[in-house]
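Worked example 4.2. Below are the chains of a multi-component assembly; read each line carefully before continuing.
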Amino acid sequence: MRALVVEDDPEVGADLRHALQMAGFVADLATDGETAWYQGDVEDYDVVVLDLGLPKLDGLSVLKRWRAAGRNFPVMILTARGDWTEKVEGIEAGADDYLAKPFAMGELIARLRGLIRRAAGRASPILTIGGLALDTSRMIATVDGAPVRLSPLEFRFLDYLTHQSGRVISAGEIAEHLYGAGDTTDANTIEALVARLRRKIGTSVIETRRGLGYTLAETTP
Amino acid sequence: MKPVSLRLRLLIAAMLAIFFALALAWTGLNLMFQRHVEQREATVLIRQAERIVAGITVTPNGTPVLQNPPRDPRFDEMAGGLYWQVSFPSGALHSASLWDQSLPLPARPDAAQWRTRTLTGPFNDRLLVVERRVRFDRTSPAVLIQVAENDADMRQAYAEFGWELAGSLFLLWTVLAIAAWVQVTLGLRPLDRLRVEMERLRRSPAARLPAGYPSEIAPLITAINALADARESDLSRARRRAGDLAHSLKTPLSVLSAQSRRARAAGAEEAADGLDRAIAAVGATLEAELTRARSAAARAAAESAIDAEVLKVVEGLIGVIERTERGETLVFHIDITEDLRAPVAPEDLAEMLGALIENAARHARRLVHIEGQINEARLCLTVEDDGPGIDLPHIEAALKRGLRLDEAGTGHGLGLAIVRDLAEATEGDVTLGRSTLGGLAVSLGWKTPV
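Applying the procedure described above to all two chains together yields the following structure tokens:
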């Protein structure tokens, strides 16, 4: 497992690197934004730990450049302020998870392993339904080329529907697939999920069959 | 003693200074006027006297005789106010107006030029007198020519002039006082601006006084800004220290937790319970301290913008919460129109809604519902979950008591206490209720600007 640690504080950086090495990672350390961007651009890492406050080039800019260049390794950002605005900015720049400083080293390692597991579990094909394209490896959807952010649940829902080859699926069945077990109140939940998805990807992709359930619109050849 | 206002002080000083200057001018102008009038009158009297001199002939026995006395009627009327007198060693000639009186002779009888003096003469008149000795030939003795005029008219003219001058100078004083007032007001205006900006500085530690003050005040502005810098760096150092302290306590706390687990495993249940309680209390205090520092920082940074696009903030927050372990399995239903705005800074709104949505996500089973609407000039944002419901009266009572963050512990109480703190700081309110979905419903309310 190769990891890149980007942290300008020498003590914290060394600490992080040591902890990652103890946990079985091969860890590189970058202490400023420009070096970090260069290393992330030319090397293949399984995971990156990125501090936001960096000299030369700030963490968010580094992250945005990597994502713009198609580097899709999972990134864990470390935020100093830990307020919601910073978390939102981090996720919107393309981070996969965040951890507010100060943090417990054990938690960081556990969450990094989680990120790597999730990234590895993703299949790579890009599914298209009409104007909607799902890139399951990067969890990114585009509608007519414009990027749309989908939650993991929404991804799983769309993924499930695409594999049913036009069959109408009841809310109960969907709930059972998503949650493992369903009950009568889940119809409302699924309805809300569909409503939210339609706001993101347009109303024409998912069709409602009243009293029966949901299906995908016929894909245009 | 109460300090006198700067404006009043400057005004009083200006008015007094102007008053004394004008009083001095009044005295000077009066003196000049009197001298001028006296000179003119003396010139007229000297002309009369010269006419008298021209009319005098000396008889062979040495007695002067006036051929053509001056024709002014006042010379002929007793105490007429205009008098002449020609004195010589053996007697005197005088105008009829003198009647049986005579003009006093000069103390120094050697004047060969026209001289002027003022004296109290016959009939108790104050007189302006011109006088001169004339010698008609070498052998005859000198003759003293005197012409006098009552100066009552002159003195009346002085008095009238004095009053008129005083009147116009008073008018001038009024105008100048108004001008001084305007000047002081204009001069002190930068201080009013300074007061307003100091108020802003008080509310927001990150704000600074802008440049563009007059050069007299500029050093003060620099000093105040330096003070604000020092205060802010002290504040942030204190916050950082609190953060560092909280951080440094976390490791010993986890060591203690491990000890407690070990104690429990070794059968010391009671000791482990005590340890756990103490650890939980310290942990809650640390969380609260960190959160408080964070929200204070957010507030300071957000001073400029107090207009948040609610939907944008909510979408951003859900983007984050959807990636957490809990949020991954939940559906977030948003019922907020795109144009809905809240009268708070986006950062503050994010802190409040973030805490509420995170709370809701923690307790929800499948669904978190977020709704925003405006009713009767009131913005209401509600976050609900479909969880099993909570101990509502307990939380409400705790919030009403003015519970401190660190007393609330983690969970609903802590998040809600942060939200309440921020809502109150932004002049909003928080209400709790039971959601129709089953769980907790928390509403944030603000008056919306019309």
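Take a moment to check your reading of the output against the notes. Confidence is low (pLDDT under 50) at residues 401-412 of chain B. The longest strand of chain B covers residues 126-134.
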